[in-house]
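Bug: C-alpha cell stream looks shifted between consecutive jobs. Job 1:
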Amino acid sequence: LLTVTVFLSTLTPKFYFALTVTSSFISGLIFVFEWWHFRKYGTSFIEQVSVSHLRPLIGGAESSPPAPAAFSAGDSEASRQNMPECKVWRNPLNLFRGAEYSRYMWVTGKEPLTYYDMNLSAQDHQTFFTCDTDSLRPSDTVMQKAWRERNPQARIKAAHQALELNNDCATAYVLLAEEEATTIVDAEKYFKQALKAGEMIYRKSQNCHSQSPQHEAQLRRDTNVLVYVKRRLAMCARKLGRIREAVKMMRDLMKEFPLLSMLNIHENLLEALLELQAYADVQAVLAKYDDISLPKSAAICYTAALLKARAVSERFSPETASKRGLSTAEINAVEAIHRAVEFNPHVPKYLLEMKSLVLPPEHILKRGDSEAVAYAFFHLQHWKRIEGALNLLHCTWEGTFRMIPYPLEKGHLFYPYPSCTESADRELLPTFHEVSVYPQKELPFFIHFTAGLCSFSAMLALLTHQFPELMVIFAKAVSIVS
C-alpha cells in the first residue's frame, strides 16, 4: 500500500490526461467496430464471441436453433427476380364493411379503414365488376358510377337505383351486402340474391362469349362476380358457425375455377379447416400450395409451423431441450418457425399478445405488419387451441429473429425485404395503430455498454484537461479507497 501511495504521488496531471484520452480513444474504436459489426451482421461481436467461445469454457451451454436447409439457388434467384417490390394484395379474409367495419366505428368512434385502403378496394371493384359492355344495360351503367362514389350512402342509393332498373343486377346486391347490411345474416341474404342473379347472367355469357371480344370481356366480368359472391357466401357460413358447409363451398369453388388461384381462396379454406381441427386436411392443402416458386404468405408459413409445433409442443421444455439437445421433430418445428419468422417477423408479437390487434385492413402487404395483423386476427385462436404451441413459439422466435439476414438487402430463404414496406403499411393501417418496422432489431447490450464507456472516458479526459489538479486528487482518493 505504501509503494502504491508513493507511485501515485509521483504521477503528474499530464499522465492522467494521457490515460483518459487513450482509454477514450480505445473505447471509441471498440464502439465503432461493434456498431459496424451489428449493421453488417445484425449481432454484437463481443456477445457472439462470449456465447460461442467463452460460455462453453465455463460450463454453460445454449441450444441454438439449427439453420434450416436452404432451397435451391435457381428457385430462390428466380423468385427474387420475379417478385415486385411492395405489391399490395387483397386480404383473402377481409371483413364486411357494413356488418363489421362500420359496427366497430359506431362503437369506438375510430375509423378502421384508411382512405388509401378503401380507394384500392374501389379500384378492385371497378376492375372486376365492370366491363365495356356495361353501357348497353342501364343498371350496369349506374353501378359503374356507384363503384366510383366516395360516399357510402351515395353508393348504397345508386345500388337501389340499379335494382329498380333491373331486379337481377348481381353487382347491386353485392354492394348492398357489403355496405348496407349491418349483420352477417343480412349480408348472407343479399349474397344469396346476388348468387341467383349472377348464375343466370353467367350462363348467358357462357353461351355467347365466342361471338366477339366484347362478349369475352363480359364473361370475364360475370365470372369475377360469381366467384366473389360464392366466396363471400362461404365466409358468411364460416362466420355463422356452419363450418363444414363453408369448407364444402370453398372446395367446390376451387374445383370449379382452378385457374383463379391468385385469389388465395385456399387461405380461407385453411382457416376453416383449422377451426374444424382437421389437421390432416390442412396438411394436404399445404402440400399443394406451399411451394417455393409461388408467392408465400404468413398464413401458409405459420400454419406449416403450427402443424410442426403441434407434434412436439405438449412435451417441449426449454430446460430439457438444452440438456439433451433437440429431437428430430423438435428440429423440424424450430426450422418451420425460423422459416415463418423470416417471412414475416411481425406475427409472433401478435400471437404472443405482446402487441394489441386491430381490425385487419382490406388489403395487405406480404411480409408487412398489415399481413401480420390480418393473420393473427383470425389464427390466434388456433394457436391457443394447441397446447404448448405458443410456448414453443415464445421460446424460439427471438432466437430465429436474430438469425434473420441483416441488413435489408440480404435474404436467406426468401427474396430480400423491400425498403418501402414501412411507408406502405402506414397507408394501409389506421393512424391509431403503431406500425411495426422490419427488421427492428434492438441494439445489443454491448453496444450500449461501449457507447457509455466511450462517453464516460471522453468526459473524464475533458475534466482532466480542464481541472488537472482536482482530478489527480480524485484519482488518488479513488485508488486508496479501492
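Job 2, same session, no restart:
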Amino acid sequence: RPSGAGQPVPEEGPECSGPEGRGGRRLRTAFSAEQISTLESSFQRQQYLGAAERRQLAGRMRLSEVQIKTWFQNRRMKLKRQL
C-alpha cells in the first residue's frame, strides 16, 4: 500500500509561502548595520541613483534593485520631513 495515499495534504499558510506576508504584501526587509551604513554613505554622495548605480549597488550589497530604490525613496522622504 502506498504511503500517504488518500491522506489530505496540509496546506501551507501565508507565512510559509515565500517572501510575502498576509494580503500578498512583501515582508519588511531587515537591513544589516553594514547595509545601512553603505546606503547612507551612498545617499550622502547623491540622493538620486541612476539605473546603473542602483544595479551596481544592489549587486554589491546582495539586495534587489527594488529594495535599493525603495530605500532611497524612503530616505528622501525622511529628509524632507526633517527639513
